[in-house]
Amino acid sequence: MFLALRAEAEDALAAALTDLDLPTDDLGIEEPPEDVDAVLASSAAFRLAGEVGAPPPKVAADVADAIDTEGLTYVSEVTTQGPYVNFLPSEAYFAETLEAATDDDYGRLPDRETSVVVEHTSANPTGPVHVGRARNPIIGDAVARVLDYAGYDVDRHYYVNDAGRQIAVFTWAYETFDESDLPEPERDSPEYEMVRYYRKGNTFLEEADADKVEEAEAEVQAILQGLEDGDEATYDRVAEVVDTVLGGMQATLERLPAVFDEFVKETRFMRDGSTDDLVDRLKELDCAVYEEDAWQLDLPDFEKNLVFLRSDDTSLYTTRDLAHHEWKFDNYDRAVTVLGEDHKLQADQLDAALDLLGNDTDQLRQVFYSWVNLPEGGMSTREGTGIDLDDLLDEAIDRARAEVESRLDDRSRGDLTEDDIERIAHQVGIGAVRYDIVSKQPTKGITFEWDRALDFEAQSAPYVQYIHARCCGILDEADDGEIPSAPDIAHLSEPEERDLLRVIARFPAVIDEAADDLQPHTVATYTRDLAETFNAFYRECPVLSADAETRAARLALVAGTRHAVANALDAIGVEAPDSM
Description:
This protein is of the alpha/beta class. 54% of the residues lie in helices and 11% in strands.
């Protein structure tokens, strides 16, 4: 209902300004401070004061007087407070919010009939997923989920770098060394087994005799050239390595969870001729130059040229990515890419080149993120291997299990089986990691801290998850059919009840704005607001012990909260436990 009220307020304000012969280009609609009894406010009086020649409070009063609330459904009254015009909610606003929130799909917006491809993670398939890069799949999956909730038709893609030097080295090493030459794998999983060959190959190229290194480099170059030449046998050799590693990486990412509709391989755009076609078009651009034994774009807004073809006629990652993006533009209405902050220059140059090639680059948006760090001593790791995402998730589950068990008294322990405790540990542990990462603005570097992430009392995933579990517990104690299909809003007149309805009403608008801005962290912020407001309601408004009519209305409010918190958590990829 928040979106409907906002539209109604905007229309009413615009009509009033038109009647007063004032401009309507900036309505200044915003959410007021918590101590203001309004859903929305307008600061337009600040902007209009100079034009009118009157102080802002006087302009605000005139504008409020010009607004006709007779025909409005969700706005009951328009008041002023200093220079602000305030829009107060009607009973219909609260009643329809409660009715809408009792739907399981509450928060999902209507189909926009717009397709979006979200490319994220795209880590080189050379070994296990590392903690430092874990922000990409978590943010990327959350962006895709929020867009899906907002009504977009979303595909999730992983762009596979299977044509670069690293993969050529990996393929050569896999075919060269025997497993007996390698250490034991750190885990019984394909990517952990395969990465041993990659590490062995790189060590060989760094430390072996010059003659042997030269011979190895020739074999690596032959693999690269085979890919450029379209040699099917070379593609098959590389695919064996890449697909094996990807299979293991995919299993790790599914634990987050981060799932993909398609793994789009870089070599696809070499095999279908689109990279060669793109190179020909790039050479025809006015800014194309051949310098330092390579074809480059001398882009006017960049100090560094964009190299797109080497002297041996082999293409580069960026060249193939240009072809990849043109393919996206042909198949989707919009494209979103989630990238580490170290790729910003490359992304800006790619955008400029796409524009020069005649593409509508308004279709493309990027989300940049900074790295995830762990405090020193924050968790154990194996000597010399760094910290893999699997290690982090395992420890998260272990810590969550210990926390859950420490909070169980004899009564609640009897209600839970060992399977229940294990399920909750997974939901809370992985949810804590994911929530802690997605709840921060992507461009800000973060240090993951266990005590904060797993704090049941602070603003963390367990804190929000517990609200869902509490709602489920209350509803489980009620009789079937006790929640009315059309609850009477008159029985929800307490301030804490109305505050909770106001927060629930905002959820669809939070999804709408998060999708527009590609900022899923705002949904996480909303879940904390919802949890705090529900706790205030729970303290002051008994549900099951209330009289019959009040009990029914409050049960409907609890059901609405359950749907809002479950779907808000789902929109950022965090599970909502039924019990904790």
